[in-house]
Amino acid sequence: MDSREINHQWYVRFDARSMHLVVENEDGEEVDIPAKYAVCDTCNGKGKHVNSSIDRHGLSREDFDEDPDFMEEYLNGTYDVACVECRGERVVPIVDEEHATREQIDLAARVASEHFADQAEQWNDRERGY
């Protein structure tokens, strides 16, 4: 599964003004969870990455040997796009565990885990052609 091809937003919304992630609990109620910024894992803080349609299934030495211009363009960022996770901002909101309660941390972990499990299932279905 290519992390550039999944929806990373496991929360309902992020309020940058109050630095809170909003998630839904089991009862469908919205809960605010303290947040902070962290460097984006998808682009490693660069704000961009190679378009996944270019190298999704990997590239070999032969790909570059057969087309030296492609290698130069690839390495020079010709095929780069704004990061799908941070949208070019280089940082993403995460739970601020120092200021969150144990209940908030557990809720965030459960919601995120369910979200990414759903994303993995959808990705697997696409790969199998369902």
Helix content: 25-40%
Main β-sheet description: 4 strands, antiparallel
> What's the multimeric state?
single chain
Strand content: 15-25%
How many extended strands?
6
Report the span from N to C terminus: 16 Å
Low-confidence stretches: none
Structural Rg: 18 Å
Write the element-wise H/E pattern from the N-terminal end onward: EEEEHHHEEH
Shape: elongated
The tally of helices reads: 4
Mean pLDDT: 93
Report on this model:
With 130 residues, the protein is of the alpha+beta class. The chain is 35% helix and 22% strand. It is built from four helices and six strands, in the order E-E-E-E-H-H-H-E-E-H. It has helices at residues 52-55, 61-66, 68-75, 102-128; strands at residues 13-15, 20-24, 30-39, 48-50, 80-82, 91-95. The strands form two sheets. A four-stranded antiparallel beta sheet has the order 1-2-3-6, covered by helices on one side. A hairpin with a 5-residue loop joins strand 2 and strand 3. The model has no long low-confidence stretch (mean pLDDT 93).
